């Protein structure tokens, strides 16, 4: 059997490690093998990184392999359904450094890892002699790039379905949220009766570049097929603020694709960002998110009729979560109770993506 390829580490031998000792009882420590020093991590992406280190020349000619011990840092808030990462030792033949480590099965985006390295010499009997472990280095993988988001965008477009007309954006909350004095809500300005942008939570894909960074206000726009109106049920509260669509979405608004995910159900969610042209969050989105044509995309469109009036349509077969990036004055819309139920089980607050869904995952870190 041939040894695993060197530069990409796609073929791996996996084994456990305890402490700073070699995991395999057949490995033998050899004092004259150099210990890697000054570990350097560079070119970090959502599912790869480059690693290099310094070594003295003592015993260097005997090195045949490198062992890279990669461990995910424990996160108590981690998605309980997500596949568990195990301590992983990557075995590769010795090659000129830096070496690229790549693999979406053991690397996830925006995740903290620790890494340590051994040098090794393969013996004629197939066993390894190894050096002592290097120091432990910590690093964090990156967000999805626009290349990865475009892959998600293409998958979302496949299931978006036909476009349905709508006229209002709406946002559900508890009654107190919409009252004049609401100091308990950080996303409300009680004195000015405004809804304020808040930092997006961690719902959706782990690699989404907007989670924990983009500021905005979540709105919905989906309608019921039989009535053409917003549904009367909501997971977010029994009171609803409605605002005419053209106030938030018009020819001066840019639209971006933010994410595509599901939560272990048949429902799929698409996150879109509406940012007024030239605003702070518009600048943030450019270069990070795929920009959509406001009048011609598969999710949410704004077009003009022959009289110059704006018409709006949304995709039928996905649930749209629309983030508007500027404050919204309550006086621009209306607040009223809904007649349906508050379906808390459908809430997407900090909801994590199903990593096993073939519809909304791409072949990089989850």
TrEMBL record:
A GO cellular-component term linked to this record: cytoplasm
Stored SUPFAM superfamilies: Fibronectin type III (SSF49265)
Similarity remark: Belongs to the PHYHIP family.
Superkingdom: Eukaryota
PROSITE patterns (alphabetical): FN3
Record function comment: May play a role in the development of the central system.
Domain Fibronectin type-III: 35-144
Protein name in UniProt: Fibronectin type-III domain-containing protein
Family matches, as Pfam families: fn3 (PF00041), PHYHIP_C (PF19281)
Native organism: Anabas testudineus (Climbing perch)
Matches recorded under InterPro entries: FN3_dom, FN3_sf, Ig-like_fold, PHYHIP/PHYHIPL, PHYIP/PHIPL_C
């Amino acid at each position: 059997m041939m040894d695993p390829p060197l530069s990409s580490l796609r073929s791996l031998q996996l084994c456990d490690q305890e402490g700073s000792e070699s995991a395999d009882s057949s490995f033998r420590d050899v004092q004259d093998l150099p210990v890697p020093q000054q570990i350097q991590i560079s070119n970090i992406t959502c599912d790869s990184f480059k690693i290099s280190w310094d070594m003295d020349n003592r015993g260097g000619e005997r090195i045949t392999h490198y062992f890279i011990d990669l461990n995910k840092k424990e996160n108590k808030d981690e998605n309980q359904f997500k596949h568990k990462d195990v301590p992983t030792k990557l075995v590769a033949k010795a090659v000129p450094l830096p070496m690229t480590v790549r693999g979406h099965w053991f690397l996830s985006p925006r995740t903290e890892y620790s890494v340590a390295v051994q040098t090794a010499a393969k013996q004629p009997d197939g066993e390894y002699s190894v050096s002592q472990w290097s120091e432990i280095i910590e690093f964090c993988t990156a967000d999805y790039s626009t290349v990865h988001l475009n892959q998600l965008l293409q998958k979302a477009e496949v299931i978006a379905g036909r476009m349905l007309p709508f006229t209002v954006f709406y946002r559900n909350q508890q009654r107190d949220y919409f009252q004049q004095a609401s100091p308990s809500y950080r996303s409300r300005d009680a004195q000015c009766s405004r809804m304020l942008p808040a930092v997006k939570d961690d719902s959706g894909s782990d690699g989404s570049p907007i989670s924990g960074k983009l500021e905005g206000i979540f709105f919905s726009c989906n309608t019921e097929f039989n009535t053409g109106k917003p549904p009367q049920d909501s997971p977010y509260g029994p009171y609803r603020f409605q605002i005419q669509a053209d106030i938030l979405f018009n020819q001066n608004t840019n639209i971006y694709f933010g994410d595509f995910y599901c939560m272990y159900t048949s429902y799929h969610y698409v996150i879109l960002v509406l940012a007024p042209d030239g605003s702070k969050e518009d600048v943030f989105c450019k270069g990070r998110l795929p920009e959509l044509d406001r009048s011609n995309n598969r999710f949410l469109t704004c077009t003009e009729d022959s009289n110059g009036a704006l018409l709006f349509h949304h995709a039928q077969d996905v649930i749209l979560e629309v983030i508007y990036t500027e404050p919204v004055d309550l006086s621009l819309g209306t607040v009223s109770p809904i007649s349906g139920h508050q379906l808390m089980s459908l809430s997407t607050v900090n909801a994590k993506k199903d990593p096993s869904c073939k519809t909304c995952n791409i072949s990089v870190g989850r």
